[in-house]
Amino acid sequence: MKLALKISVLIIFLLCYNNTLGQQPTDCIDAVIACGNSNVNLNVSGVGTQELSGSNTCSSQENNSVWLKVTLVTSGTLGFTLTPNSTAITEDYDFFVFGPNATCGNIGQAIRCSTTNPSAANQGNNLTGMNDSASDTAEGPGADGDSFVKWLDVLAGETYYIVIDRPIGNSPFSLQWTGTAQFSDPPSDESGTNGTPLNLESCDVVTPFDNGFTTFNLTDNTSLIAGTQSDVTITYHENISDANIGINELSSPYTNINNPQTIHARITNNTTGCFELTNFQLNVNLGPNFAQPIDYELCDDSADGNNTNGRVIFDLSSKNPEILNGQNPSDINITYHTSQLNAEMRANPLPNAYYNSTTFNEQLFVRVEDALNPDCKSVTPLNLIVHLNPEAFNHTLLQCDEDGAIDERTIFNLNQANTVLTNGVAGLSTKFYTDSARTIEADGNAFTNTSNPQTIYVDVINDSTGCSSPSELTLNVSVTDSEDTELVECDNDGTEDGYFNFILTNADSDIVAGLPSGLSISYFETYDDALLETNNLGSTFTNTNPYSQTIYARVENANNCYGISEVVLTVNELPDIETEALAYYCLNDYPKRTTSLNAAVINDNPSNYTYNWSTGENTYQIDINEARTYTVTVTNANGCTKQRTITIEPSNIATFETIEVVDATQNNTITVLVSGEGIYEYRLLDENNIVYAPYQESNTFENVYPGIYTITVRDIKNSCGTVQNPISVIGFPKFFTPNNDGVHDTWQVIGISNMFQPNTNILIYNRFGKLIKQLNPLGSGWDGLFNGQKLPADDYWFAVTLQDGRVFKNHFTLKY
Question: What span, in angstroms and rounded, lies between the C-alpha atoms of 219 and 226?
């Protein structure tokens, strides 16, 4: 049953994907042989050659079919149940049975068939087949039948063809055999019983030797697979499809096409045609595992009498541990060869001590082989590289004895000689030693000599290759000296913080005063930097300590230290003054009145400074009587200066230009227009000099009651004084009450005086137009009498002609 299941799965693959094969199980001649009464699981696709036309009573033909061949080995009954994988009632399978002992090409009439459509027949499922409960031998098409017909009574040795066809649907199917008759058993793979593995392995013995393809004798597995079976044929195939159908048999010896590769063996019973498939692997051994060796690099040496010819002796065996990468050296043989062919053929192995024949760069080939099976090998290249040693030069350093003790001992920066030692070639570095054997390394950044002079032994090293050449560096200590000096600047760079950007070269002349010519000077922040020539400050430097800092100047003669001097950088403070001020001068006081100005020194005695005014004066304080800008330059004892600027703006009392009065209205207003350099405020006093309206910024007064007033204008810019001007606001009372109570006892035009409108004409009429009174504009007014008699309370009319020509007519009320 397992074998039949395996065959059915393979046929599914065949039917679905191998449509180009010359043989298909859709035809009788290619029928799938059913063996061992196993269940069948298949798919159907296509018809191949149409072989059912007119060969059945069920009125159908091949649509999507597969042919099965059944040979019985015992008598009994033969039935089956076919189940589509899909349970859809529309999935429709038919079948046809031919035999017994029918032959392809003369198949005859079907002895059993069913083409019932399960949906049309209203079946509860889509199963079909042959069983013991059915009585008919043929049914269909369409709604006819129930999809099952009577099973067969069969005899041993009989052969039947069963055609499975699917006219509707796309589902594969499974087929379960029923009844008592039995099929032939398939042959078996007996290689698993003798303990010998089927997989074949071979070294790559066919050129090219490293591509993983070589020859195999497939028949070495034939007797192992057949075992004790005598009536079987074993064939070999590249794919499972060919093995299943039995086509494209492989010949032996065979060259693999993949590594590894699976070979499929078909075991066929020569009598029954039943077969079984098995498989095994072909593996090409590409040789032992190994680590790819890195380039073997050496520096040229004088062992051969020439250290520049690019040839040295290589110890090839020294690469073996790297290639083995931890493997047991007794399991693997390693040999070295000048060509790949020699390595592949194991010809002309090189000695371990190999003197390269190609200068500077030569490629060898390493053969790595299995010690037990030398044909299993790998070949890999190995590059031999010879590097030239760098060119090295001797040099002398002269250093100053500037450590405070004249003992010819000082600190050297040995790396300062690197440019000469390496001739300025990029990619070269140095190491320094105090012994000729170059075992005691010296600190190249700070080394204190132990003798004067002293020889330091140098290796000039190529940083990329590690190759080196020797040279010597001589250290000499000089006891010469140079002068200390000071650079002084005022803190006038715009920020008074004690920092200043000094031009260091301004100190050069003081440092070398009296010394030989041709000396060079460089500046450093610390003594150690100057001694070791590190962190050169350049030509300018901003001090890092405010107001005072000492730096160091190194004086050299031809790159050798002549002396180290102290340079004190001093930043002097500027005078502490108020630099700007604003003041005013009253022009109306010119020239008799003066204003005092001073230099505004802060928190110090003014006598500690000198002064230079823009007026030419040189005192701390001056008196001025003009409005303009004044400057004074203040200088302290260190010669540092700062300037104070005082701006004197003019001010003045006001000058009246015009006074605009709008009177005899509901809202009497006064607008004052003045000129002058001051800033002004305005006030109103009544005729008794009592404040009517206090000082205000606005030059307009509103809702002013009629009367005589004095306008006062004062300067608030510099309090230069006030000016006044009297004015009159004309108005007419609405009523009067002549009852001698001291309030409103008379009626008179308000705002008239000897100064304002004295020649005004005032006439009073009763309501009938009769002239009652002509008033004196400067008198006390009308008391309500006419010819000595009180007039009645009533409205009375007036006509006023002011001296300025204005005429007003209106009425007022007399009340008691």
Answer: 11
